[in-house]
Amino acid sequence: MTYLLLLIALQAPVWSAAPGAATVGDTVRLVRRLSAPPDVQARLQTLDASPLLEPLSPPRAAYAEGALTILYTVALFQPGEHAIPMPSAELLYPDGRVETVLGDTAWITVASVLPADDHVPPALPALAPVTRAARTPLPLIVMTCAVLLGTVAWGAARRRPGPVAPDDPAAVARPPAPVDRWMSAGEPRAVAAVTADAMRGLIAELVPQAGRHLDTEECLEVLRAAEVDWPLRDLSELLRALERARFSPAVPSDVVELVEQAERLAERLES
Predict the structure, then answer these.
(1) Cα torsion 198, 204, 205, 207: sign
(2) What distance in Å separates the CA atoms of residue 256 and residue 159, rounded to the nearest whole number?
(3) Residue 159: what are its φ and ψ, rounded to 5°?
């Protein structure tokens, strides 16, 4: 009787698969239970992916009711009955002992998701050649003529004499900008841009080496090097404030104040 029970225990499956009737692509849980004390720890090895099997999560071990449960979650992609070699596990006991438990084999039956009579339909006969429309060079000729005409017109326009620049650009009087009208129209940034341009023009007229081609910081460095008798601190604060007002939303009253400061400072520079 004892021999019979031992034989039945040896023939019993070590691993159980859930669900029992799995199909291709289903999530399958492989479970094994081992008798172990409560404080035992399991060191598990991962399953390798293959065309047949794909691990979906790392292996896990949990202790409950006098048994250590080992869980592998996988998916299988080929129908049939498969023998999956399972990795061994190491059990670490509180007294320092290490026991290696062989992985054994997990048997899983996977059903196909395709119907039993599924088959590939026969190949259809080849279609007749597609009739191609006759080609004509007329669109290419028209496009080439249009490009040539555009090139000739562009060259003729470039040969026209442009406006003659005066000998002294600073001598040409610029019409005053409609500051009040722009402010009432809600364009304070345009007013700041015009005011900054006027101040840079005045600086370039009085100190030629501080021309408009320089940015604000470079212009201020040139003025410091030239040692001009100007209030450079007020001038630098004004130019930076105008530059900020040009590229960011500004309060109209602040821009009006900057315009007034620019007018007073311009009078001091010209005196």
Answers:
(1) positive
(2) 45
(3) -80, -10
d(CA 224, CA 210): 10
Say if residues 53 and 75 touch (Cβ distance below 8 Å): yes
Beta bridge mates, 35: 67
pLDDT in tens, 105-135: 999 999 988 776 666 677 788 888 887 777 7
- Asked if residue 90 lies in contact with residue 100, where contact means CB atoms within 8 angstroms, the answer is yes
- Residue identified by tokens 């129908």 is 79
Q: How far is CA 158 from CA 89, 130, 153, 165, in A?
A: 86, 50, 9, 17
Classify 193 in phi/psi space as left (phi over 0), alpha (psi -120 to 50) or beta: alpha
* Mean pLDDT to the nearest integer, 209-235: 83
CA angle 200, 203, 209 (to 5 degrees): 105
The reported pTM is 0.41
The strand ranges marked E within 45-167 are 53-55, 60-64, 67-76, 80-85, 89-92, 98-101, 105-111
Structure token digits, residue 56: 């979906």
Structure confidence at residue 168 (pLDDT): 45
Q: Round to whole Å and give the CA distance between 118 and 112.
A: 11
Cα distances (angstroms) measured from residue 190 to each of 66, 184, 239, 245, 250: 83, 12, 15, 9, 11
Helix-helix angle 252-270:188-206, to 10 degrees: 10
Encode 48-78: b = buried (16+ Cβ within 10 Å), e = exposed.
eeeeebeeeeebebebeeeebbbbbbbbbee
Q: Is the peptide bond before 19 cis (omega within 30 degrees of 0)?
A: yes
Condensed to tens digits (0 to 9), the pLDDT of residues 51-87 reads: 999 999 999 999 888 889 999 999 999 999 999 999 9
Q: Which amino acid is at 261?
A: Q
| Cβ pair 27, 56 in contact under 8 A | yes
